[in-house]
Amino acid sequence: MPTHLVAATEFQTSTWSGGTSTQLWIYPKGASLAERDFDFRLSSAMVEASGPFSDFSGYDRLLIVLSGQMSLTVDGVKGAAELGADTAPFEFAGASQIHAELGSAAVEDFNLFVPGGVKKTAARHKLEPHQRWHQPNMPQALVYGIYLRQGYLIAGENLIDSEYPLIISSTPLNLLTEAPSDFIAFAIGHRQ
Hints:
Elements: E1 4-6, E2 12-16, E3 19-27, E4 40-47, E5 51-52, E6 59-67, E7 69-74, E8 77-84, E9 90-93, E10 98-102, E11 107-115, E12 118-127, E13 132-134, E14 143-150, E15 153-155, E16 158-160, E17 166-169, E18 174-177, E19 181-191
Antiparallel strand pairs: 1-17, 2-3, 3-4, 4-11, 5-10, 6-9, 6-11, 7-8, 7-10, 12-19, 13-18, 14-17, 14-19, 15-16, 15-18
């Protein structure tokens, strides 16, 4: 997969009972969330009401809370995960029965969906201007990427900014910050 910048105008936002969800990227092209025929999907959500997570049987998920707080009941275990902007990513099976109880007025999050058993990683990073950052190599990774929330990043000859906030690559990305920057770095591999 060659390096590819994704424009913010390509994102698709939809409303659901608990808030809004923005699909950042779905692969392969033409795949559908409704049909559950994708190899991977990236999204962000603004959750404004407590409630259940959707069933994504057959997929594994990774969730990063970007702002706000929530407590998760997972498969009947109340408080199984307490998530906030400073907590580690939460990984779970898409078939898990999860109920989120918001601890703040709203929660913004980042979601990575992959078929069950596919290796994945994601982490949030905040850097100051003129810092260099090198994405770690993940053995057998097929896809690397950066989702920019704020700031300006340079990856080779590509500018990642508010107009083009997502970059997808087949190799780890090397970045230079041009302003204070907040981003999610992710990698997706083969089935384990």
